[in-house]
Amino acid sequence: MNALLWKRYKEIRTNKIKLFITLVLPIIYFALLTGFSVPRHIIVSYFSLACMLIGNLGHWNIEDLVHSETLLTTPLTPFKLWFANWMLVAGSGFIIAQIYLLMISFGSLLISGQFYISDVLYFIENIAFSFLGFSLLAAATVHNVDFTKWKQYLTGVFSIFNFLFPFAPFLFASILPTGIWITLGAVALGILLTTLSLLIARSSRRERLVLNIQKLSEAYEIKLLND
Fold it and tell me: Phi and psi of 27, rounded to 5°?
């Protein structure tokens, strides 16, 4: 498990594109939200969720799918591999977003004498939607446990939503829901999606993963030869 986390960390440090997506893109995203006059409470409430979904793009690597078969010689199970990757991707996105919000809030205090996060409800909403972000990333990546087709079709819906959602504040800021009931609903939905994702991931089998990875490897190698 530690080896997998260290591998991901090294990838981000040495890959400029991943480093840009993980560390710089959230800042650009915040600047764009501000530049397009998105209301502050919408920015604060949804910023961490959007950053987590954006950050997921920086962790995608086709090589992991094709060559992960070698990891099956270790005590790691498909569930542990998926769980570690999920926690790293979602956790890093959440932490980075919170750090940036903290920096922005204190920067606003120094410049204008007022915290950027001026209402505690906005922060509570931010945490609730962040939890929803954890569950959405779980639901969008659970097919990685064995790459069966039905899991890929199921998670494809969440993958599309996760890709499109960061654009929502620009297009639908006036109708994006906030408030205590929406916050509770986000937590409830997050619990439901997380529970379902964990149950699906727990049902994975090492043998099924081996067979499906072999198929992916063959398709990937054929594509490389054709290119």
Answer: -65, -45
**pTM to 2 decimals?**
0.83
Non-local CB neighbours of 9 within 8 Å, separated by 6+ positions = none
Reported residue count of the chain is: 227
| Dihedral, CA of residue 109, residue 112, residue 113 and residue 115, to nearest 10 | -40
The DSSP string of the chain is -HHHHHHHHHHHHH-HHHHIIIIIHHHHHHHHHHHTT--HHHHHHHHHHHHHHHHHGGG--HHHHHHGGGGGGSS--HHHHHHHHHHHHHHHHHHHHHHHHHHHHHHHHHHHSS-SS--HHHHHHHHHHHHHHHHHHHHHHGGGGT--HHHHHHHHHHHHHHHHGGGHHHHHTTT---SHHHHHHHHHHHHHHHHHHHHHHHT--HHHHHHHHHHHHHHHHHHHHH-
pLDDT tens track for 129-159: 999 999 999 999 888 787 777 888 888 889 8
- Rounded to an integer, what distance in angstroms lies between the CA atom of residue 47 and that of residue 129? 9
Separation between Cα atoms, residue 210 and residue 45, nearest integer Å: 41
